Amino acid sequence: MRIVPDTNVIVSAILWRGPPYRFLEALRRRTEVQVFSSPAILAELVEVLTRPFATDRLELAGMSARSAVSSFLEIAVLVRPGAVPRVVIADPDDDEILACAVTANADLIVSGDRHLLDLLNHGGIPIVTPAKALTLVESGTRAP
Q1: Domains in the chain, start-ordered, CATH in brackets?
Q2: pLDDT of the residue at 36
Q3: Cα 78 to Cα 21: distance, rounded to the nearest angstrom
Q4: 8 Å CB contact between 129 and 33
Q5: Neighbours of 3 (CB within 10 A)
Q6: Would the pTM count as exceeding 0.90?
């Protein structure tokens, strides 16, 4: 299974221990699952993780933004989308997630973002919550 997690999922997984964290940990255990990201997603991840609320939380966990991003990169394959079409008018950053998923030929997009979840899918790629993705990854089931 080929998966593109949204930046909000990665941030939540790094900073808290809810479903996004359990999802990311399941990805680390399942070598048959490939995780994809892009330079634009990583740039957004760094930007969010260097905000005061995040640096405070990372500090409590004994981490830095750099170490958190490095940890994510241990499981992610970078792709470079050639084009980023406008799809989500209300939040252009979400278009980067969609473009990454298309470029990676992903089976699944994982997000907690209403703009993306409301689409249900993009180009035939289902968009699901971290909790739903966790169920799919742990069961070894293909995306819906």
Answers
A1: 2-139 (3.40.50.1010)
A2: 97
A3: 21
A4: no
A5: 26
A6: yes
